[in-house]
Amino acid sequence: MQVGVTDIMLSIRDLRVHYGAAQALFGVDLEVRRGETVALVGANGAGKSSLLKAVMGLIRPSGGAILLDGREVTGSSPAAMAALGVALVPEGREMFGDLTVRENLELGALVLKPGRAELARRLEEVCARFPKLRERLSQRTATLSGGEQQMVAIGRALMARPRLLLMDEPSLGLAPLITDEIFDIIHQLSRSGVTILLVEQNAARGLTASGSAYLLANGRITGQGRSQKLLVDPELRRAFLGAASGNNPAASRLGAAGLTNIRLEKEMTTHKTFMPPFRTVEELQAHQLRGLKWTVRHAYEGSSFYREQLDRAGVTPDDIRTLDDLRKLPLTTPEDLRDGYPFPFRAVPYEQIVRIHASSGTTGKRKILGYTQKDLDDWAHFFARCYEMAGVTPLDRVQISVGYGVWTAGAGFQAGVEKLGALAMPVGPGNIDLQCEFFLDLQPTVFCCTASMGLLMAEEIHKRGIADKINIRKVIYGSERSSVSMRKKIADLFGGVELFDIVGMTELYGPGTGIECPHHDCIHYWADYYILEILDPETLAPLPDGEWGEMVVTTLAKEAAPLLRYRTHDITRIIPDPCTCGAVLPRHSRIRGRTDDMFKFRGVNIYPAGIDRLLSEVPGLGSEYQVHLRRDQAGRDHMLLKVERGEGVEARRADELRREVIYLIKHRLMVTPEVEVVAYGDLPRSERKSQRVFDIRITDSVV
Ligand code: ZN
After folding, report:
1. Residue 425 CA to ligand 1 centre (angstroms)
2. Ligand 1 centroid from CA 647, angstroms
3. What is the tens place of the pLDDT at every residue in 527-539?
4. Which helix (H) or strand (E) holds 585?
C-alpha cells in the first residue's frame, strides 16, 4: 500500500481491537508526521494503551490497518517492529528489578544485536542524556526511585535509537516535580528530532508537550487538532472538567493529573481570543469613527489644552462626521508635552487616574502620561493580543527581561502575560546569571527583551553551552532597531527560536501597540485602539500608503491622556496590502528612524538638541558638531563626537576642550563619548538642516 504524503511516518486506519468479546477500539484513525510529537489524550480505560500495544505488535488488532512509512505492518511481531525502528516505553515501566540499570538499558538494544563497541557507544549516549543514571549503572534497578526508573525505561527505548518512540503514560504515579523532569526530557527528545506518539491521561501535560493531539474516549477519537488550540478550547476544557467533576474533582485522576489545577481555572484562559471581532475593513472603520468622535469630544470637554487647540483651529466635536474629518484636527507634538509639563494631555480628574508612567523627553523634562483603570485594562487586553498573535498560550512561561520601573516596558509585558493567563517571570534587564539560572531551572518558553539584550543572552547561552538544556521557543523583542544578521544570530544561538518584533511608545500606552505575526512580514498594529497617519515631515501633508513618512497617531479609547494627531517623530510607512496571514489588522513597517535625529546609545535616548545645548555651555567651542555611531566586532557601540574650535581659538586648547566636553556629556547624558576637536570651519555647513548624526551601527536593518 502507498501513502501519497511522504512525511507521514505512522498511519493508523480504522483500527479495531477486541479483548475477547469486549471491544477496546472502534475504528480509530490517527497519523503521526515525521519529527512531530503527537499526544493521544484520554481518561483511564479510553483505549490509549491498547492502541500503542497494537502498533508495537503486542496485541493483534481485530480489524483495520497500521502503516509505517506507507508500508503495512499490521500484526507484525514486536521484534519486527523494533527492527523497523519503533520502540515502546511501556506504562508502569516494566523493569527487571533484579537486573542492574546497565543490564536493563542493554536489553533495549538486544533485538538489534549490536557489537560490543556499538553497545558501549549507545550506553554512553543514554548516560549523556540522563546523567543521574550514569552514577547508578551498576545498581539494582529495584532500588531506584520511580522517576529514575522512568528514566531507565526511556533510556532503554532510546538504546534502540528509535525513529518512532511510543510512550505510554510516562508521568503515571510520579510526583509533580519528577513529572516535570520527565516532560523536560520529552521536550528535549522532541527538539532533537525524534518522532513521538505520547499517550497521556493528563491532558494539560500531553497537549503542552505535543504539536498536535487526538482525544480518545471510550475507544473512539472524539477530537483532534493543533495542541495549542485544543489547550485553550473552552468546550474541550469543560468536557474534561465535566468528566472529572462527576466524582470528586480533586481526587479524580483527571483532576490530580492537572486539568483542574488553579492555572486552568484562571478566568482569562476561557477567553478564546483577544483579536477584534471585525471581519472587514468597513467594520473596522465604523469602529474607528465611533472612537474618533468619542475621543475628540472627551478631549475637548476634559482638557483645557485640547479645548484651546481645537478652538484655535475652529473645530468642534460636532465637526467630526467621517474619518476624513480627522484631518481637520490640529497636530500635537512632544514639545506640547514639555511646554505643559507635567500633564497637559490630562482629560480626566486626577481622582480617576490610577497610575502614571514616564519616559525621557526632548530636553531633559520627562513625558508624563496617566492611565485610568480602563486604560490599563485596554492596554493589558491588546498586549495579550500581541502574545496571542505570536502564538503564546496560557501554558507558556514568559521570562520578562525588559526594564521595570516608572517607564512602561516591564509593566506592559507583565500585564499582558497575566491577562493571557500565562506564567510571568519578571526578571528585569541585566543580571545574566539569574537569567541563565531561570532558563535552566524554570524552563521558560518565551523570552521578552530588547534586541541587544536578546543578542547578549544568545551569546551567553552559546558560551555556556546550554542551548539544548533550555526551552525558549519564542523571543519577543522591542524598542530598538534590529538587523537581519542580529535576528539570525539570536535565533541560532538560542537553539532555533522564532523572533517577534514588538512596538510601542509611552505616549501611546507603552509597548504592545503592534507586533509581527507568524508570517514575519512587518508589524500588525492595533487599528481598533488608534488611527495611524503617515505625514510628510516637512510639509505635514498626508502621504499615500506605502510611502515613508512621520507616524502620527490618534487614540480611539484612551481616557486619561488621549492623543489627537500626535507627531511621534518616528519614521515608518503603512503597508497597503493585507497580510498573507489573513488578519484584518493593518500593518506598518518597522521604525526606520527619527525625524528629529534622536538616537539610542547604550540604552539612552539622545537628542541632537540636547548635545547642542551642552556644547553651547563650553566657551571656546564652535556651534558645529557631528555624532558618529559605530558598532565594533564584539557588538559594543561607540560614539565619536566631532566638535569645532570656535573662531580664533588656538589649536593648543584642543585637549582642554576635549576633556571638558567628555566631562559634560558624561555627567549630563550618562554616556561616555570619544571626542575629537577639529579646526574652525572643518565641518561641512549647509543651508538646509545639516546632517549631524551618522549612524552606521546597523547596515542590514529589517523594515
Ligand atoms: Zn500577518
Report:
1. 28
2. 56
3. 999 999 999 988 9
4. none
